[in-house]
Amino acid sequence: MRILGIEFASSQMTYVLLEDAIGDQPSIKASNRVSLGDTRSRDALRAFQTAVLTLFNNAAPDLVAIKDKPEKGTLRAGAAALKMEGVVLANAPCATKFISGARINKCAPSSELHSYQQAAFKAAAAALEDQ
């Protein structure tokens, strides 16, 4: 099973693609960031959508796991994160699942990734545990 973990932070979407492994740890197949240049530009949104579609075509995920961001309160998601989330949900070729921040915090980090990639990795790892 291939799971694409995603986290939205500011105008950046960080992703990590995990695949089931025979051993204890899943294997990391890909990881990177995709940016939304301007939240009020149609061209920027189309460029982001094209990048997301290319990611989905190359990754061929069986499940997309997204770190849940609250819509209200002090830690709420910004406008850019909500727009990026909408693009991802509208174009996802498979099921999507939101993973809570509390659940993500319980997952062990990967020593192979940078700190900014850990939340996306943990979202995918938590979804993989559920399978």
Give a written overview of the molecule.
The protein has 4 helices and 5 strands; from the N terminus they run E-E-E-H-E-H-E-H-H. The protein is of the alpha/beta class and 131 residues long. The protein has a single domain (2-130), classed as Nucleotidyltransferase, domain 5 (2-Layer Sandwich), CATH 3.30.420. The longest helix has 18 residues, at 42-59. The N and C termini lie close together (9 Å). The model has no long low-confidence stretch (mean pLDDT 92).
Overall mean pLDDT stands at 92
* Unreliable stretches: none
Q: Identify the strand order in the major beta sheet.
A: 3-2-1-4-5
Overall strand count: 5
CATH architecture: 2-Layer Sandwich
Please indicate the percent range of residues in DSSP E strands (runs of 2 or more). Answer: 25-35%
For the sheet with most strands, the description reads:
5 strands, mixed
Which class in CATH terms? Alpha Beta
- The SSE string, one letter per element, is EEEHEHEHH
* Net shape: globular
Q: Radius of gyration from the CA trace?
A: 14 Å
CATH topology group: Nucleotidyltransferase, domain 5
Number of helices: 4
Structural category is alpha/beta
Task: Give the CATH superfamily.
Answer: Ribonuclease H-like superfamily/Ribonuclease H
Total domains, how many? 1
